[in-house]
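Data deposition worksheet. Section B asks for the primary sequence of the deposited chain exactly as it was used as input, without tags or linkers unless they were present during the calculation. Section C holds the resulting structure in token form. Section D is free text for depositor observations; keep each observation to a single sentence. Incomplete worksheets are returned to the depositor.
Section A, Depositor: J.P.
Section B:
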Amino acid sequence: MDQDLKCPKCGSEHVYPDGSLWVCPECAHEWSQQSEGSAGPSENPDASGEIRDANGNVLADGDSVTVIKDLKIKGTSSVVKSGTKVKNIRLVDATDGHDIACKIAGIGAMNLKSEFVRKA
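Section C:
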């Protein structure tokens, strides 16, 4: 652990790593390790803010994507079939991994994970 690391909010030296975040137990502030000015390459491929599909292509608002796996819809018996084309996606910042907001014909509005789609 880096001995020179201090909380950027309160200056406490008693910080600890929690997954990909640093946590200060005194003020409960959390921040990413990348914000500390590390000069090395990013360990997380999505750290640049780009959202990529299952093949590694960068996605943008308004793109069309194709679902690559049958996806069960939570709370219903419906399924989004593999090969379903979704037009005019919107990228959202989601903490649960569902980073694509879209409307699917016959189902309605829903969120998808980018790892289960490929750019059409």
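Section D:
The radius of gyration is 19 Å.
Residues 7-37 form a domain with the N-terminal domain of TfIIb fold (CATH 2.20.25.10).
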